[in-house]
Amino acid sequence: MLEIINPATGECFERVEEAGAAEVDVAVAAAHAAFPAWRDMAPPERSRLLRALARKLEDAHESLARLESTNTGKPLSSARGEVGIAIETFHYYAGAGERLTGDTIPVAGGLDITLREPLGVVGLITPWNFPLPVASWKLAPALAAGNTVVLKPAELTPLTALEFGRLALEAGIPEGVINVVAGRGETAGQRLVEHPDVAKIAFTGSTATGRTIMKRAADTIKRVTLELGGKSANVVFADADIEAAAAAAPMAVFDNAGQDCCARSRILVQKNVYEDFMARLEPGVKAVRVGPPEDTAADMGPLISAAHRDKVAAFVDDAAPVAFRGSTPEGPGFWFAPTVLAPMSNSARAAAEEIFGPVVCVIPFEDEADAVRLANETSYGLSGSIWTRDNARALRMARAVKAGVLSVNSNSSVRVSTPFGGMKQSGVGRELGPHALDYYSEIKNIFLAIGD
Ligand code: NAD
């Protein structure tokens, strides 16, 4: 049995039957049996069903948001936005799936045609920080490309995934096409990774787990896509709009209590504007309101668990100096105040490792070359921002920084219609946009001899 905790109170509010390896086997068998009919369904009919599912999510928007915010502690407004992202993702791939085509390639003596074929049963393993959006980024393209799926949500936050499974059946998605197993990583997750009838694992989570999954998937030569951790840089040049950069910096890392793989958790500031930037950053950090989901003015909630809060706290205990920090409510939730560590060295543990909490390191730099060096001096490569008024510099930086998703004079990371994913140890493959469909289909090449 999984005990589901409300992080804003520390209390158990729900219990869920726990799936183990045997339940995963049943789910994979169901997905395997459902695959041929789903694969062979005319694409417009599959799209019609995906649109029907999107409409079911629209009808359940508020109830899903309330369930998610209770389970994760995040502000209700954030949870509403996340359900909105899931809905948009299903609408997008309902359309994109209808336009999946192969190529015709003229060759000597004949014609090559390519078919894009689905992979089969795809295992989806997701984390607790953005449960519904991250699941939908895998579910929607996988289904649109003709695969059937087994989704294993994080053991701390399985509720919206289970509700999603019920809504899918109500929308008319045939039984067996979408299966949800609420279990732990080392049992249910591992079985999914090792199962011989699973063709691919699409995983989002920590780099350590991604490494384990990649190794175990090797035994059956499974396809894997991995969306992993990050330690992204928010680079502020002296020629930037410093006020705008400082105003945007707090929520670029404290959104979702810093439990965001794209969090800009290192702020690199050019030395000659360091004091100015810090003076503008401080009031913004102190104004971040930390509160429970029912606090409609809250900017961020608690951390996901007591264990995670202790892990985050250890980074701050180890690291001098705390420049300034915000405040938290009193009481039993897993609260942690927004915290700024500055000035920091890029090689300090808090600046090098993913903290996944509301802690940001500010690191001064000399010039553009120094900024590139520091931004890239990490094993991660997920996202980042560049603040400058010089467009040529922005483009030079964007080309030089090894990260999959960058933004200029903005902290935006995710748009459903554009590709998302990491370089280096932040991952393998891309989600979202038209590119995601490449990772849920395989190209078959057929030669037709027609003579010269
Ligand atoms: P985690 O790696 O502990 O768990 C993620 C999922 O993997 C869970 O469902 C868990 O049950 C499962 N799992 C754990 N061990 C497993 C195993 N051996 N085999 C199969 N499955 C296993 O990550 P988390 O703590 O839930 O999430 C936080 C991490 O996720 C952070 O590192 C964060 O950066 C990353 N993340 C990345 C992205 C991205 O898109 N790059 C998005 C969100 C979160």
- CATH architecture type of the largest domain: 3-Layer(aba) Sandwich
By helix and strand content, what is the structural category?
Answer: alpha/beta
Strand content: 15-25%
The major beta sheet can be summarized as: 7 strands, mixed
Average pLDDT over all residues: 97
Instruction: Please name the CATH topology of the largest domain.
Output: Aldehyde Dehydrogenase, Chain A, domain 1
Global morphology: globular
Distance between the termini: 67 Å
Q: Fraction of residues in helices?
A: 40-55%
Number of strands: 18
Bound molecules: nicotinamide-adenine-dinucleotide
What's the total helix number? 14
CATH superfamily of the largest domain: Aldehyde Dehydrogenase, Chain A, domain 1
What's a quick, concise take on this entry?
Helix content is 40%, strand content 20%. With 452 residues, it is α/β, with parallel strands linked by helices.
Please provide a written account of the structure:
With 452 residues, this protein is an alpha/beta fold. It folds into 2 domains: 2-228 and 424-449, Aldehyde Dehydrogenase, Chain A, domain 1 (3-Layer(aba) Sandwich), CATH 3.40.605; 233-408, 3-Layer(aba) Sandwich (Aldehyde Dehydrogenase, Chain A, domain 2), CATH 3.40.309. It is 40% helix and 20% strand. The chain contains 14 helices and 18 strands. It has helices at 21-40, 43-59, 61-72, 76-98, 131-144, 159-170, 185-194, 207-217, 242-254, 274-286, 306-318, 349-352, 368-376, 391-400; strands at 2-6, 11-16, 104-107, 110-118, 121-125, 148-152, 178-180, 200-204, 223-227, 233-236, 266-270, 322-325, 339-341, 359-365, 383-387, 405-408, 427-428, 441-449. A 7-stranded mixed beta sheet has the order 12-13-14-11-10-15-16, with helices on both faces. It has a 6-stranded mixed beta sheet with strand order 7-6-5-8-9-17, sandwiched between helices. Strands 3-4-18 form a 3-stranded antiparallel beta sheet, with no helix packed on it. Helix 8 (207-217) links the parallel strand 8 and strand 9. Helix 1 packs across helix 7, helix 2 (43-59) runs antiparallel to helix 4 and helix 4 (76-98) runs parallel beside helix 5. It is globular, with a radius of gyration of 23 Å. The relative contact order is 0.14. The structure holds nicotinamide-adenine-dinucleotide (NAD). Nicotinamide-adenine-dinucleotide (NAD) binds next to helix 7 and helix 8.
